[in-house]
Amino acid sequence: MPHVTPLIGTIVAGLVLAFILGQIAFRLRLSPLIGYLLAGIAVGPFTPGYVADQSLANELAELGVILLMFGVGLHFSVKDLMAVRKIAVPGALGQIGVATLLGMGLAWLLGWSVAGGFVFGLALSVASTVVLLRALQERRILDTERGQIAVGWLIVEDLAMVLALVLIPAIAEGGGGSVATALAVTVGKVVAFVAFMLIVGRRAVPWMLHSVAHSGSRELFRLAVLAIALGVAFGAALLFGVSFALGAFFAGMILAESPLSQRAAEETLPLRDAFAVLFFVSVGMLFNPDILTDEPLALLATVLIIMFGKSIAAFGIVRAFGKSNKTALTIAASLAQIGEFSFILATLGFSLELLPADGRDLILAGAIISIMLNPLLFSLIDRFAARVAGGVEPEHAIGGQPPAPVRGHVVIVGHGRVGSIVAKGLTDAGERVTVIEAQADKSGLPAHEKATVLAGNPASGALLREAGIDKARMLFVAIPESFEAGQIVEQARALNPALRIVARAHSDAESAYLETHGADRAIMGEREIARRMIDEALIGR
Fold it and tell me: What distance in Å separates the CA atoms of residue 213 and residue 23, rounded to the nearest whole number?
């Protein structure tokens, strides 16, 4: 058999080039996503040299979307989804309506049909799952109120696109009766799938995973997680006609109720990242650079609709619901791009002869440009938030709490799984603590009379000073990111040379890194577990 098959060649070329160009982009302080997209352009059919198999790349990318949506479902329960329904449902539908009308207006100026304009506008209205979730995860805001609204908004968009994918063929055939029938059938299928998952899946999925976990085989557990994610997604598409992404999301959401959800998320992370990279490579392969010179004004208008038209609409809707400017800006930036559903709609519209070839190319070019520019919007929001949180304004003390105590308190950086336990233990013992958390809208922040909570960049010297680090007796750095923790330790040590600093580590190398930057002690979970086991073995000997 040949050594280089289309599948192997596509995977190898995509991942290797994505790594090289992603590394270059990172060193230039750009998003690695830009490198991944450029890798796709390099192996695409419109540039010289090796050409990867585009159909295989798209199928591999679909696997990435399935695993990614499964991971999102693991962190997004039914309770969370219902909590944001009042803003996510009308917000998403309103934003889709505005973007669709803007797209239809541009299509009318270009002389396309009404049906072609409708498909074009819909394609510009829906954001990329992969891009949005990557942005939220990189900034650790997926579990915040802003993150929950953004993900709920995205789910509503996906549901709307599922309906659109059924309606568009009916529109192409013509006749109002066929459209009404298709809509009724699609809604019925989605309702049937959701009911099935809530009644049957809610019992069967966790039970199966628990049974495998009791076997003690990590290999079987990992395989069970992948089988659930892929099997439910495939079954949802085959039996109920809903998208792979939506099926995987509900599988993860059902599994989120199990105590094993965290472990399941960790097991799918490596594959999710690898296939997400292939998704961006596949998008780059679709790009025809000729559109840049053939239709520059139309392309500019398309990008403006994607990045400003629907984002302004989203900002206005979120503000109308009484949310803060910061939340509204985050939602607007999250939606200022298009992705996988846009490509599906463009392909379907072109195959049904509703959308001209220029329309398909404009959608693809707009997607790549918006994905490239989207990190810049988030960077602007991050800088705005850092300026507000790192300054001297008093509003970043959350909930009107008193300022940090004068002397002798404990500062805790990070209120996650570790920091929350430390904060509760110290406040219950009567200690005064000041918690520094990057996101003010993160759930579960302490509301204790002896706790002060500050929001902002923990590595900011101004925020550390506001926390009274120069008068504190101890600092706990409880965040899992060792590089950022090292910067915090270094800043705190400079502000208070006598401060006792204890940091969290995951390996001997991280422990050495943190201690080099000024930590008195770096606590590694595995080492402490081993010590406790030894103590238990020596009890009563």
Answer: 37
